[in-house]
Amino acid sequence: MIPLALLLLIPAEIDVLESKDFSKAAQVRAVTATVRVVNGTKGFEGSGVLLKRNGPIVYVLTAHHVVDGAKRLEVSTFSADSHPKAASVYRTAEVIAQSPETDLAVLQLTTKDEMPGAAVVCPPSKLPEGKDFVALSVGCADGRAPTCALEDVKGRRKVRKPGVEGTVLCWETARAPLKGRSGGPLLDRRGYLIGVDSGISDGKGYYTHVEEVHAFLKRSGLKWLYEEKADK
Fold it and tell me: Sign of torsion, CA 21 24 26 28?
């Protein structure tokens, strides 16, 4: 029998799903790139995804409605060793770009800490096509640690959001995401970020399409957060 004191020192493994499309390593990378975001002003919890860093500045992509009206934001990261507990908690995150129309926002953290992971925004040259394919969503349901879910992507849809003019391009999934996963990433089998969890309607999920992410980052002067072409 292993003594209890030793058991407490053994890090928990990240739970993974049985999937022929997403390996254990791919799911672990996805989880460690995902963060929990707490809007202390409105008492709202959501998710986000680590993108890149520039010196001491770390950039996080999330949904606008997660951070809307926030005067105080808290971002928690999760490593493979710390999960399901947070590896670090940052209470001075700032919104540096936001778009209510496309439900996107970028946060920045200032830290010397190494980030546990990062996601790569799908380059325009590698946009997924078609419909009825499997993707991986990651998020912090009910404020817990990030977990993966397999999503049946039905295709691209133009969606009209309440209180916002015009439509936004989204991926539609067969089921609605759980509360708290808003702002989390949708990844394809190559590991590219192809969408951001934005909302639900009629029992289906909607993820802001990566083309909208490209346009938003470009408008915000943050185009360098994604690559025009893939390395391979």
Answer: positive
